[in-house]
What we know:
RCC repeats lie at residues 80-140, 141-194, 195-246, 247-298, 299-351. It comes from Oryzias latipes. This protein is α+β, with helices and mostly antiparallel strands. Among the domains are: 1-13 and 30-115; 356-474 and 484-572, no CATH class; 574-656. Helix content is 28%, strand content 24%. It is built from 13 helices and 30 strands. The strands form seven sheets. A five-stranded antiparallel β-sheet has the order 2-3-1-30-29, with no helix packed on it. Strand 18 and strand 19 form a beta hairpin. The radius of gyration is 35 Å and the shape is elongated. The chain starts with a strand and ends with a helix.
Amino acid sequence: MLSWGEDYQQGFRLKKGSAVPPVAGGVRSLQLSFHVADLCVGLRVLAFIKDSGEASIIRVSESAAGTREKRKQKFVECEERLAAVGCTDDGVTLLSDTGVIFCVDSLHPPFTPRSLESLRGITVTQVACGSQHTVVLSKDGQVYTWGQNSRGQLGLGKEGCSSISSPQCVRSLSGMPLVQVSAGGEHSFALSVSGSVFGWGRNDCGQLGLGDTTDRETPTLVHYLNMKKTVFAACGKDHTAVLTMDGTVFTFGSGHYGQLGHNSFRNELCPRLVAELWGAKVTKISCGRYHTLVLTDHMKVYSFGCNQHGQLGPREETHPCVPLPVQLPQEGPIIQNIFAGGDSSFATCRPEQDVSEVPVESLVDRWISEWDSKLQTKVKQEIDQRFSSASLMNRSFLNQSKHFQTSSTYSGLDLSLCKSGFNKLLRNEAIQLEVEKAVMKMLPSLHEKPAGVEGLRVFLILNELLYAIQRLRHGSLWEGPQTGRGFHGVEIAMKVAAAVQSLSTEHLQITANWWTLSMMEDKSRHVNVWRTALSEVLGIEAFPHSSSKDILQILQNMYNVNKGKMKIPETTFCLEFSPIFIEQEVTRWRWQSKSMAVDNPPLILCSFAFVMDFKSKQLVFQCNSDLTVVIKATPLAAPLCKLDKTICCSFFEFKKD
Length: 657
């Protein structure tokens, strides 16, 4: 975990022998033996939840000299697994993953949590704390508050007392479909599922965003945020920040320390867009007492506001009022979450970004550039992870703006991304072999009855992979050393064809629909994949001809769809077969037509004559004629002169063309 601002490192129990030097200016890397799932900072207390569901508290006391001293973290003995935490100035409120609220008096250890009788039977999903009050949201959308109410921060109206120790329901919000609550110094917020924002409590700096400085004792709709699609609110001591669905940030309230990010130190009575963040999609926001943090989709952290304790990271200005990036380590951990509290800032990390979450186009460029370096082993592992999983392959090439429209007539894939990605990646034959090995591991996992149509996308992706393999191999476009090893591309084609043919009739029809749409865009590319695969399989003696039937069936399905809609010429499906193959086919056919047992019946003639080109069909007639002459000249052989009707019809139809 990274931290900057007021230093809490002496309170955390670090790994033995781990020093904590600043790694980037004032940023410290805390080498913890656990991952922090949630964290909150009050005036004199810090509490956090481990990913194991355990909670710990760090108390802060003031020495005689006026310095703040952090005590070692103390474990909270709780009977339930904990999921979230909130801190007032001195108190801690814990939320279990079963929805039970526990309160802890951090002034008097041992820290024994106590449940609240008035919330018994109520499942709580969120907790937020101001300086001296607490707000929680229940699973059924009700808001409960308790604590100090000197400025109306409990939202209970005029009948509310100045202080309430037992949770009370904020009835004016009943019936609203609420999804989030937030609390600051002496003000509170609630958000609805459709983006409506309600604020109440102290408003002397405009922290409620209502256009005035009048306190509110009951929840009041923030009209200025209507239609902004607000999805999250964060509160500081006397300022507020909200995040919208499209990643923009609005701030309002006190700007005394520049915590609003508007390049000024003025208060804002109405929500104002943080223009300096325009163009960066923000995914998370967090507010400390007098500073604000935001995290973007590129994992950059920006900060603005008070920097008296270094809570913004290293800065030349004392109180910067515009968002600037925090100078974090250039390489290393990837930011997962941010927490601003009091005069401190924290960022939880994962050691490396999960490759499954990285856009495939970014991965391809990195894999290529790092292949010939010391990172090759890591690249191999990432390639294996990406392509040995049907699920990861499935979501790697989505059309990000349309994939939610996936249906039996639309795959949701960006096939141009497939094409460009595979063309770049497979130019290095060594990388291609790694991809092929991973895909071969994945193919047995393909289910014959996927739960939904999205599970069928992988077949279109594999189609593009096969096309790239064939194009690069036949065009000799490989870069770097070539090994010439194996026939993985052919084996993949055979296994994919077998997987396709194991699908139900309904799923086969869906893949046929998707192929039809892709054929409209890419013409004959998908047909060429399987026509080439058939040619390669028939040309390799190691593979029995019977193993080609799955490939022929795919071509048959495409041919049938195409025949009804005539998107591409029928000659696209045709191959020129060798005289030896034709002779074997005719011989097998004649033995079969004589009702004699045939271990290896004809592959093409009886069922798939559409794949023969004109020259091949001529050879069939010539071979049959030659065999007839031979048979007639043999006294013991019965004449076999009648040519199969399917062959004749197919031949004459082709001749007309």
